[in-house]
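=== RUN LOG ===
request id: a7f3
mode: sequence -> structure
chains: 1
length: 226
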Amino acid sequence: MLLTYVNLATVIAGSFIGHAFGKYFPERIIKLVFQGMSALTIYLGVDMCNQSTSPLIMILSIVIGSIIGELINIEKGISNVGTSLNKRFKSKNNDNFNDGIITAFLLYCIGTMAFLGPLEEGLKGHSDLLLTKSILDGFSSIILCARLGYSVIFSIVPMFVLQGSINLFAQSIQDKISDFMLAEMTALGGILLICLGLNLLEVSKIKVTNMIPGLLVAIILAYFMQ
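=== RESULT ===
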């Protein structure tokens, strides 16, 4: 899990840089870069969606996953955690505290590299994908922390749990995940990224977090339908 720790370190370093020097970044530059990142998020989402070969799996995954997520109300749970952390650390940026955690978590944890990187490291002991992701996350955290506050750094907790779990679980599944299953899960992740990008551009306010269970649904459906 060496590269998983490297990934966490780049986010921490980027967050500190963004928090320490973010006030020196002109607002217009931060806003433009943030909008560029949002547009790039949508592009990556569209590119990931193209990997799907089964529209039925995509539809069922979104529907079933959204229902499960809304019943559990994952977004409210994360929001409550963010509120507790906010009170504990007395954040001056109350409006952006929860958004910082949720946005950073979705950006760092939902995507092809977030799954394939730890999987590759768990199976092979190394991962060029995870190294690339670490560099991208480091730069992203600088902008996110400057824009949304230091709450971005708390995203390393769910990121460690998610990527660490995938890394360890990969050793026991090895030949059990087919290319078809991986493609369908990746495509569903693309849908979530598109929704996230629209939220970041303030075009909509979609409860993306509550759609996350759809990723697991996509894998299960693909397993039985392949």
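=== NOTES ===
The radius of gyration is 17 Å.
The mean pLDDT is 80.
=== END ===
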